[in-house]
Amino acid sequence: xxxxxxxxxxxxxxxxxxxxxxxxxxxxxxxxxxxxxxxxxxxxxxxxxxxxxxxxxxxxxxxxxxxxxxxxxxxxxxxxxxxxxxxxxxxxxxxxxxxxxxxxxxxxxxxxxxxxxxxxxxxxxxxxxxxxxxxxxxxxxxxxxxxxxxxxxxxxxxxxxxxxxxxxxxxxxxxxxxxxxxxxxxxxxxxxxxxxxxxxxxxxxxxxxxxxxxxxxxxxxxxxxxxxxxxxxxxxxxxxxxxxxxxxxxxxxxxxxxxxxxxxxxxxxxxxxxxxxxxxxxxxxxxxxxxxxxxxxxxxxxxxxx
Length: 306
Prior knowledge:
Elements: H1 3-6, H2 12-36, E1 49-50, E2 54-56, E3 60-62, E4 65-72, E5 77-82, E6 87-91, H3 97-110, H4 141-162, E7 173-175, E8 180-190, H5 199-204, E9 207-215, E10 226-232, E11 249-251, E12 256-260, H6 261-265, H7 270-288, H8 293-296, H9 299-304
Helix pairs in contact: 2-3, 4-7
């Protein structure tokens, strides 16, 4: 596999319709996991995970066993497998969100899995109930495959970066609400409560964090795919701190550092460039936020980055 295979081009304008549809499909699958899985701090019990073929819910408990729902972006199928040896699958092809919702619920029902989800999308403008959404119906398999290939490469780098931290740290996981792959480090201290925050935000940011992730972009403030990093609460001086590589920048609209994906993929060493962005943005938040770094980081890694 060449570097261009594992870090392919992903111009938002070329796949924005597929992105919008796939966003809704992943929300439906994610809500199934959310409805049936134990609630874990910071909503970790609702996320999806990168696999060797796509994205998965991981095992979900139900009655006498578990089941798992997976997107396969090689064969382009949606698969449900149970610990009882049963399975169901259907093709990922251009189809409306309403049809996808119906097919998934019918497939679960045929396996004896009864689940009730709130059929309203989250974290998107002008949401339409899944069972009524006839407008999102695009699926370009080539771009879905490219997106997954990038997730695999980024997931590998993020797990390497995660391994350098011995404090509380999240898995590398895919948030279907915001449609991003993310990883979060914690200082160990509670954060000031955010006035007027909704229950999701309140739980997500109950403690001090520094997060980094990969996101396809919004075509407006962040015009194409990009990596991001932020500290919450943001310490004084964070936005002015020098973050590497040189093309990284701070967005006052988003209150986050960004590094455009194309600047990474065009590098001779994209993985190392991404690690540099993760490490330097983490250091900005940890130093300015007075984190207890000697007890949170592996000594060898800390010495190497001193």
